[in-house]
Amino acid sequence: MAAAFGLGRHPSLADQPEHGRQGRVWRLTTTAGRFAIKLPYAAPDPRSVAADATYQDSLLTRGVRLPPVVRTPDGEVLQEIEGWGVVRVYGWADVCPPDRGLDPGAVGRTVAAVHAVEVPTEGPQHPWHTSPVGADQWRALADRSLAAGAPFGAQLAALVPEFVALEELISPPGPTRRCHCDLWADNVRAPAHDEGGLVVLDWENSGPADPVGELPMVMFEFGAGDPARMSALYAAYLTAGGTERLTGPGDCSMLIATIGHIVELGVLRWLNETDVRARASHAAWVAEGVDDPLTRAVVDEIVEAAVTVGSR
Predict the structure, then answer these.
(1) Strand, helix or coil at 163?
(2) Among residues 200, 1, 7, 184, which one has the least CA distance to residue 99?
(3) Is the Cβ–Cβ distance between 55 and 178 less than 8 Å?
(4) Where is the secretion signal located (predicted)?
(5) Which listed residue, 137, 161, 202, 292, has the most CB atoms within 10 A of its CB?
(6) Distance (Å, rounded) from C-alpha 24 to C-alpha 39?
(7) Which residues contact 287 (CB under 8 A, 6 or more apart)?
(8) What is the rounded CA–CA span in Å between residue 50 and residue 64?
């Protein structure tokens, strides 16, 4: 692997990988430094990978802090390694654990820097970010969860009317361009060993989106239920030259759709899983969406925080 990507001599692989939603990540140390070896669970599309790698190169050049893409000597991002499968490589980034309590000003400035890099992209926005789960599916998920004795079943069933009403706010996106699309606390991290800017990870899911939709996502995630934090984040975004303006509930469509599908997927995985430890992981995933749920009242808080800042 080190030879295939020209990573230096005397490679040493960490004993255990880190497990993410999309794949496993191994730390490789060589004479040239430390690297992240990513093994995706699903076979990546080479064209999509080339596009997201080019996007990451542009962001890095413009000062966004992220692990650099490492290519083979022939310029390839993907490489099939015997005994491993298809892998891709990044420079290693030492980061702190996920933290929704990050400085909201730092988050706002980071998102502004990301939005300053405009990269066109083709194709429609993924339905994950635009389409509702739907009333029938929500009710079916709740019924199946209750019947199966899911630990989250009662909470989910109680929230179904709110989730259905919330999805009525979803509206078509505006003009799209390439966006990160996954700016949750897992992927926006504080650096572990310095006072520099936040590090943005996991760009593989970047794709077409209306960038304004990312603002409610980070205001919900890092606002953590505090309107003052939401306002501070949005104000920092504007002060740093952020290109987008959040003006109404329709701008929260990407947040509403994405949260809904995250909960939906977690429920389905729990229902279809038989391994006890894996089920516990899926239940924890669902709990994130039902213990601190996105509701119409929260959407109103997000919009009000933005409008108040914008009117100053």
Answers:
(1) helix
(2) 184
(3) yes
(4) none
(5) 202
(6) 5
(7) 151, 152
(8) 19
Are the CB atoms for 12 and 28 separated by under 8 Å?
yes
Q: Which of 16, 66, 28, 300 is nearest to 204 (CA)?
A: 66
3-class secondary structure, 13: strand
pLDDT digits (tens, 9 = 90+) for 139-181: 999 999 999 999 999 999 999 999 999 999 999 999 999 999 9
Q: At 225, which amino acid appears? A: G
pTM of the prediction?
0.93
Rounded Cα distance, 309 and 125, in Å: 29
Locate 63 and state its tokens. Answer: 């000062």
* H-assigned helices in 102-241: 104-115, 135-147, 153-167, 214-223, 227-239
Task: Tell me if 207 sits within 8 A of 181, measured CB to CB.
Answer: yes
25 vs 38: CA distance, rounded Å: 5
Helix (H) or strand (E) holding 35: strand 33-40
Kind and range of the H or E element at 52?
A: helix 46-61
Structure tokens at 66: 């992220």
Total number of residues shown for the chain: 312
Report DSSP letters for 120-154, one per residue.
---SPPPGGGTS---HHHHHHHHHHHHHTT-TTHH
